[in-house]
Amino acid sequence: MLFAKIENGIVTNVEVAEQSHIDRLGGTYIATPRNGTNAGIGFTYDATKDVFIAPKPYPSWVLDSTYTWQAPTAMPTDNNKYYWDEESLKWVKISL
Q1: What residue spans define the domains of the chain?
Q2: CA–CA dist 67, 80 (Å, integer)
Q3: In this structure, what are the phi and psi dihedrals at residue 12, rounded to the nearest 5 degrees?
Q4: What is the pLDDT along the chain (96 residues), one digit of tens a residue?
Q5: Whole-Å CA distances, 88 to 28, 30, 43, 55, 92
Q6: Predicted TM-score of the model (pTM)
């Protein structure tokens, strides 16, 4: 199984182990995924909702109902590559 070590609500380690091994380690470990969310180092664990939440990528992004960060505007779907520009709050096409 995959377990996330939680310290002060933050995932500090993720490891594959048997429950018996985790029981010997001490500390707080939560099995992942939880309610459709996976854990990663630096993620927050919301015990009330029983979900892992990735770090917020940009100040303007908002958390949706599936606990995924969303940009204020959707990324274009025209098969080009884009990056998010926080200053202009726009997706910028990557020119190769």
Answers
A1: 1-55, 57-96
A2: 26
A3: -110, -15
A4: 999 999 999 999 999 999 999 999 989 999 999 988 999 999 999 999 999 999 999 999 999 999 999 999 999 999 999 999 999 999 999 998
A5: 41, 39, 27, 21, 9
A6: 0.85
